[in-house]
Amino acid sequence: MMKLYYSPTSPYVRKVTACLIELGLADQVERVSMNVWADTAAPYREINPLGKVPTLVLQDGSVLFDSPLICEYLVSIAGSDKQQILTPNEPKRAQEAKLWHAAADGITDACVLRFLELKRDEAQRSPSWQARQETSIKKTCAWFAQQPLAAHGFSLGSLSLATTLEYVDLRYGDYDWRKDHAVLASWHRDFADRPSLRETAPPTS
Ligand SMILES: N[C@@H](CCC(=O)N[C@@H](CS)C(=O)NCC(=O)O)C(=O)O
Is residue 203 situated within a structural domain? Predict the structure, then answer.
């Protein structure tokens, strides 16, 4: 059985877990909880030198990290009927899916950086650094609002966007992206009902 090192609120883990569900592979993975910030996580760096989650350990012991690579691997081992759900064949949509995946991860990265900044002592925080991350989040949400969301349909790109928007809700709840971008809000409302999203909703703390 493969092993997935995870933490409950990690948006990157959530995306990988949603992929596992979409691909019908969830029962092939044992989940191992990892608090990457705890001192006890030191030995984990023998598995993933970056000390981050998610990490996927394959049955032969080889290790994959970085969520896009893990998703790509999972798609590669799913049956061809399932593969097309996440990675479209049509070249334009395929390219769009990859770009959207990268852009959604970029929003997530900015949200994580902002969240970590806000966890520092107030005196150590940098308002300009925080503002920079907020600009990245808002500009990229605005960029997504201009994309052909309905025409694109479902893919790893749109799945990543949905998990990312819900991570914005979790960690940057002050930003009302639904108000700024009604088109994104109505797209997300329809999308959010997928079992892979409902079953992976993050804990609210
Ligand atoms: N690019 C990585 C990012 C993973 C990541 O940053 N995970 C966070 C948890 S949300 C983490 O483990 N952080 C620990 C650290 O940065 O030391 C991916 O896509 O998997």
Answer: no
CA of 182 to the centre of ligand 1 (A): 30
Cα 116 versus chain centre, distance: 17
Nearest CA to ligand 1 atom 15: 52
Q: Which residues contact 156 (CB under 8 A, 6 or more apart)?
A: 19, 71, 75, 86, 87, 97, 101
Look up tokens 């960029």; give the residue.
143
Q: What is the pLDDT of residues 81-102, one digit of tens each?
A: 888 889 999 999 999 999 999 9
Domain count, the chain: 2
Q: How far is the CA of 52 from the centre of ligand 1 (A)?
A: 4
Last residue of a domain, one of 84, 113, 138: 84
| Same domain? 140 vs 153 | yes
Per-residue model confidence as pLDDT tens digits over 110-167? 999 999 999 999 999 999 999 999 999 999 999 999 999 999 999 999 999 999 999 9
CATH number, residue 104: 1.20.1050.10
The reply to whether 79 and 92 lie within a common domain is no
**Which tokens in the block code for residue 133?**
């991350």
Using CB distances shorter than 6 Å, the residues near ligand 1 are 7, 10, 12, 36, 51-54, 66-67, 105, 112
- Pick from 7, 13, 52 the residue to mutate for probing ligand 1's pocket: most ligand atoms within 8 Å of its CB: 52
Atom of ligand 1 nearest to the CA of 54: 20
